[in-house]
Each structure stands twice: as C-alpha cells, then as structure tokens.
Amino acid sequence: MKKKLFWIAIGQFISACAYCQILNANNLVATGLGGLATVFNRLTGADVQLLLIIMALPIFIWAFFSYSKKQIFYAAFSYFMFTFYVGIVNRILPQLHTDPIAAAISGGVVGGIAGGIIMKQRVANGPESIVALYLKEKKGLSIGSYYLIINTVVIFSSIIYGNMTMIIYSLICTFVQSVVTDKLIIGFEKYYNVNIMSDQYLEITQFIRNDLNRGATFIQGMDTSNVKKKMLIQAVVNQQELIAIKDFVKAFHDDSFICASISNNIIGRGFDVE
C-alpha cells in the first residue's frame, strides 16, 4: 500500500507540473476536471485549487455510498495530491513559456509519463475514473468512449475564451499524452506472435529453442492446397528474433509460410512486459 501511495504521489507531482508549468503557461487546455477548472478560472478568475475541490466533492460524496471504500480512498488520495501540488509547483518551479507545438508535445510527454506511473498502480486516479466505472457498469459505455467524450467537451469549451488554433494544439497534446501513457504501461519493446507452417518444423523448432532460447508450441494443421497434414509452430518473439526466424526459414527455399502479428501484455518466463 505504501508503495502505491508513493508512486501515486510522484505521478501526481509530475502531472501537476505538466498542468501548471506547461499547459496553463501556454494557454493549452488539459483534460478532465483540470481542464474544466482552467476554463472556469479564465472566465471568472476563481482559484484553480478551489474549483478542483468544488467540482470533485459531490462526486466523492456520491461514490462514498456506492463503491468500495478502498477504491474511493485511492481515488481521493490521488486527486488530493494533484490539487495540493497545483498550489505549490508555481512557487518552486519556473513556467515553460514556448511556442504552442513545443508546449503541446512536451506537455503531452510529461503528462503521459505521469499517467503511466499512476495507472501502473491499478487504482482509480480521481473522480473522473469513478464516473467512468459507473457508466461502464450501469450504462454499458466503455471507459475509452467516456474519456473521449468528456475530454472533447472540455477542450472545445475553451473556445469561449480561446481560439480554434489553441484547441487543435490541446488535442495534439492529448493524443501525445495517451500514446506515452500506453507505451509506459505496455512497454517499448515489440513482441510478435509468430505462426509458421512448414515441413521443416523440427529444424525450425530446434532453432527457436536452442538459438533464440524461446519456447514453441506444435499445433497440427492441414495444407488445403494439397490436403496434406502439416505441423503449425507457434511462438512469441521480439523484433530481432522475428528477423532471425524469417532468415532461417527462407534458407529452406520451400513453401514454408510465416504469419506474424504484434502481441501486447506478454506475461511469463523470458518476458518482462506487464
């Protein structure tokens, strides 16, 4: 539990830095309640921290009677840390004033790193996550669809005080952030699910096991072109190993067939992607 809280605190500090020092400093709009707080702040001049608390409090009160107390605790802690850091980062760190495209990319990268750190703890990271969970359970709306709708509404609401150009840059920032978050969660290494149909299945399997140090599975299949039984070899390898397999199989100069597709979330011996 302490480890989760530590990484949530670190993630939200980074998130607050992206929000205050990059996005707000360059008139870009964040997603979620942070984005709404920015819109209301620029329209009314109200304190951002106060707006964050006012918007989140009703959701947490409702959720307290509807969901697991442990889940609410993590969500509340995560949101509290973000709100707390929003009030102090401007006092300890300089703002990054730059051109909009640089701000969009850097804000997306920093925000994506923060999102990846927090989401890897497998906890709700704020009131938005609780609402997303409710809509998924009760209304059948996917979490991805929920975030797409709410973030689009938040960003386009900034047209009240901004312009379409800044909205486009904000959308670019959101896209970059989602890509970076996915990379941190899934990993940067690409793995491939490889299917090989060949008469040389024993030689190929021996190569995979001995030279690449990977496991392989046999599945009996049939070639429909000549109604001949063949052995299908299935293995999961990285990009370099896939190239090695292709070169090895091509050397037979026969009708061996290889099909490879990208695989994510590989868990098990020999793989460190979670």
Structure in words:
Keywords: Cell membrane, Membrane, Transmembrane, Transmembrane helix. The chain crosses the membrane at residues 44-65, 72-89, 101-119, 140-161, 167-188. Its main location: membrane. This is Membrane protein. This protein is α+β, with helices and mostly antiparallel strands and 274 residues long. 61% of the residues lie in helices and 12% in strands. The protein has 11 helices and 4 strands, in the order H-H-H-H-H-H-H-H-H-E-H-E-E-H-E. The protein has a 4-stranded antiparallel sheet. Strand 2 and strand 3 form a beta hairpin. Helix 1 runs parallel beside helix 4 (69-86), helix 1 runs antiparallel to helix 6 (100-119) and helix 2 (32-44) packs across helix 3. It is elongated, with a radius of gyration of 25 Å. 30% of the residues are buried. The model has no long low-confidence stretch (mean pLDDT 84).
Structural class: alpha+beta
Largest sheet entry: 4 strands, antiparallel
Query: What is the count of DSSP helices, taking H or I runs of 4+ residues?
Result: 11
Mean pLDDT: 84
Encode the helix/strand succession as letters.
HHHHHHHHHEHEEHE
> Spans with pLDDT under 50 lasting ≥5 residues?
none
Strand content: 5-15%
Question: Helicity level, as a percent range?
Answer: 55-70%
Number of strands: 4
Strand order of the largest sheet: 2-3-1-4
- Terminal CA distance reads 19 Å
Query: What general outline do the C-alpha atoms trace?
Result: elongated
Q: Kindly provide the radius of gyration, computed on alpha-carbon positions and rounded to a whole number of angstroms.
A: 25 Å
